[in-house]
Amino acid sequence: MRILATxxxxxxxxxxxxxxxxEVVEQFYxxxxxxxxxxxxxxxxxxxxxxxxxPIIDAAKGSKLKLIIRGGVGVDNIDVDYAEKxxxxxxxxxxxxxxxxxxxxxxxxxxxxxxxxxAGHTMREGLWEKKAYGAGIELSGKTVGIIGYGRIGQALxxxxxxxxxxxxxxxxxxxxxxxxxxMKYVELDELLEKSDFISLHTPSLDGKPLINAETIAKMKTxxxxxxxxxxxxxxxxxxxxxLDSGKLRGAGLDVFAEEPSKNTALYTHPKVSATPHIGAxxxxxxxxxxxxxxxxxxxxxx
Length: 302
Description:
This protein is an alpha/beta fold. The chain has helices at about 10-20, 30-35, 55-60, 80-85, 100-115, 115-125, 150-160, 190-195, 215, 235-245, 265, 285-300; strands at about 1-5, 25, 45, 65-70, 90, 145, 165-170, 185, 195-200, 225, 250-255, 270-275. Helix content is about 35%, strand content about 15%. The strands form two sheets. Strands 8-7-6-9-10-11-12 form a seven-stranded parallel β-sheet, with helices on both faces. Strands 2-1-3-4-5 form a five-stranded parallel β-sheet.
């Protein structure tokens, strides 16, 4: 098969597909160019940068294209229902990057606790702000509320429990066997009221953002928000207001409503630990994603 990887692909996956007789082309295209090129391929592999919307799917109707793979967890950058209605299957790699994203969420929690991002920045400016960053807190003994307790949420929950934290989880789907002395399922309002840290692990939601002025008002004063899911799950204006007022201690953000983000006031805020959407950007995750893509392609149609 001819495979187009518009957002790149791990070399190990490319080599394995090539060894199996497939042709892999790594090339990014604008939406207009992609609509022209995609019909020449059997499989389209994308990450976050490429959006596969109705015009591209319309262009691929009746062509060779039979499979779209999202190398990652969410598929909100693909019009899944429309693609499948038109005979193009959509798959993703949900297992591959869970640990990497969970570790980044935890890293942001540490950064917010101990001012790692802000303090490191001042040192690069030649300053020694020991007193300014002397009011850190420990994670041990704190409560983390995890919204979306799927693979990534569970991976974060295990790490938090290992650090001596209590875990509250809110999810539409509950797995009772996961509950224990230090992990309980609760309703959203209880999670908001009792959590010292709130970490988001849900897909993009329709309607108003999950974290907005109303939900922030229900949180503890001094709580912190971590988001490695989707940027539009947070009302950025409401978050900025809560950081400025002191309602929230801080925020760890890997995703933003617009990417690359133009919200300078947010990502440069002294209470924000920010990264440019790198949740799955580890060597191990990329290798696992590549292996899972190979598996999906090899098993497709069987």
